[in-house]
Amino acid sequence: WGLLLLTAALGATAAARCPAPCVCDNLRAHVLCLNGSLMAIPDTIPELTKKLDLRGNSFTVIPAGAFLATPYLTHLDLQRCKVERLDEGAFRGLGRLVYLNLASNGIALLYQESLDGLSSLQQLILEGNRIEEIQPGAFGHLGSLTVLDLRANALVYLPDMVFQGLQVLRWLRLSHNALHVLGSEAFAALPALRRLSLDHNELQALPGEALARLDGAIRLDLGHNPITYVAEEALAMASLRHLFLDHASLQDVAPDAFARSPQLRMLDLRENQLQGLPPLAGAGGLARVSLDGNPLQCSCLLRPFHKWLARARVQAEGACAAPPALRGRPLDSLKLPEMRCGRLRPPPSPTTPPEQPRQCPRGCVCSPDFHHGSCENRDLREIPRDFPGDTRLLDLRRNPFGTVPPDAFPGLKELVSLHLQSCSIRVLHPGALRGLESLVYLYLTDNHLSTLVAAAFEGAPQLAYLDLDRNAFTRVPTGAFRLLPNLISLHLQHNAIGELAEGDLAGARGLRWLYLARNAIKHIAPAALAPTKMLEKLQLEGNHLSEVPTAALRGLPALSELKLSRNPIKHMGHSVFLPVASSLQHLYLDNMGLERISPHAFTGLGPKIRSLYLEGNKMSNIPDMSNFTGLEILNLQDVPFHCDCQLLLLRKWIDKLNLRVGATCGSPAEARGLKVKLSTTFLTCPGWGRGEAGETNPNKTKAASKPSKKKRSGKSPARGFSKSRA
């Protein structure tokens, strides 16, 4: 009885001290102060609080000693609190804290003592900030940390020993940054690391020296980086079992690339530009290689790889792209006699002296083994010449060329990939690429181009990937792509384009991926996209569109992904996606300030929709989506739903989904902040108790639904939003 009286007394004290905007659960020692207008950490939070949720407030700065009054905290959530700075000693006194979430704030710098005092912390989430620099020693006091999440920040460089002190860290998440360079000792202080996520960065080559320090790492994610080749013995990771290099720019892999990673079991090379692979000598433990989405040439040149697959008993996933007779054939169905080559070139005449290889231009580096040339960051004012004629990849980044003159690359008929990023280029002259008859990839990011003429691409008919992000375009250069019949991917993000007009994309009939994010587009003409009948992906996020460009979507029968996030679209009318309803699979409508959606806005959409993003909007209701039976991802976070009887259908539908959707009530007052699934405001609604078998008791209805959920568990569970990002 004494213990009960003491507990009651403590509970009464805690209730008396609960801050007015907050909700206190004394039994579980939880305090919620969600989506309010708090400008500072409340100083009247009960001392015995263990879990404190402060999401959606406006703190700007977390000052030193901000939580000294709550020393028993184990979980602290500060997501979306507009935090820009963590003062030194901000979390001092929180020696019991095991979970700290600072995601989706504006933190730009981690100071040496910012995280002091968190000796028991196990999970630190810093996703979605603006962190550009981490000062040495910032993590030095986090000796218990097992997960560090730094995704979606602005990191460009990792210095040596930056993670010193993280002796038990098991998963380091660095996806979706802008990492270019890793110090050779960047990962030297991570003896317990098992998983490293470096996907969606700007790594141009495999950072082998830095990765060699990770003796215990089992999984490495490097997908979605512009890595063009993997050199000999590039990866020396003794325990590595799973390597992901998908959606990169790989054109070649050396035979001994993985010879120093003897435990490698699974190699993911999907969606690259590989025409083939050599036998992967040294990778004796490899069990599976995924090559789906590569332009594999199943000629006699692929026979050595095919023989190695059979000899090493390696499962290969992928299909032939050529020759025509084998197009679409799975690799594992091929027979050696089918893999033939055409007529071989006759040997040179004895009277003709063999062609002498050219010398490498002064100040540049040429690799005869991989047919690569590089003059990166040499302060060159003119494009060098006299590269070897068999050069396939040429890296000229970070040189102040200013212009690319006509015939700038003579004798490079075999060149496949050309890198001209950050070269202060203002003009690409007619004939600049003349003679580059094998060119497939052209990178012109971070230059000063404001216009282009079609003649600039004369002589490069195979060009398929063109990257013009971060230039000075105010409109799409009309007709510039008419000499590029094989153009597949066009990047024009982070420019100042104001509209998409008819004729802008003339000639781009093979275009499949169009990236126009972060421009100033207010209008898209109805016929602007008409030439791109094969378009699969259209990204328009972060523009100035005030309505869905329905008319412009007509005639796009293959469009599977449409991204309209962060456009000021306030109202969505009837049938706005009907022109692409038969093909659309991924639809992004998040963070637009959307206030009203017509009940018939999604007319035509149905089972094909796999992901739908609606988070960060202002509407209080959404249309019926009961026929969206193929959904794998649905995000309804930060939408202020009005949880009354009009929302009952949505409430019941969410119950049936095997997804985490994040839907919360914004009103009425008694339901504010609660999950829609947990709100009791629906209990008095007509039809609430009517289940499939006609039960009227809510408890019976809930019980009756369990077998159906159990039945569904036999299938692979659909992936919820919480697992959808790397």
Automatic annotation (TrEMBL):
Keywords: Disulfide bond, Extracellular matrix, Glycoprotein, Leucine-rich repeat, Repeat, Secreted, Signal. Residues 294-342, 640-686 form the LRRCT domain. It comes from Mohoua ochrocephala. Residues 1-15 form the signal peptide. The gene is Chadl. InterPro entries: Cys-rich_flank_reg_C, Leu-rich_rpt, Leu-rich_rpt_typical-subtyp, LRR_dom_sf, LRR_TM_domain-containing, LRRNT. Potential negative modulator of chondrocyte differentiation. Inhibits collagen fibrillogenesis in vitro. May influence chondrocyte's differentiation by acting on its cellular collagenous microenvironment. Its main location: secreted. The keyword Transmembrane helix does not apply. The keyword Repeat applies. SMART domains: LRR_BAC, LRR_TYP, LRRCT, LRRNT. It is found in: Secreted, Extracellular space, Extracellular matrix. This is Chondroadherin-like protein. Residues 689-726 are annotated as: Disordered. GO terms for cellular component: plasma membrane. Belongs to the small leucine-rich proteoglycan (SLRP) family. SLRP class IV subfamily. Residues 17-51, 359-393 form the LRRNT domain. It comes from the Eukaryota. Pfam families: LRR_8, LRRCT. Associates with collagen and binds to collagen fibrils.
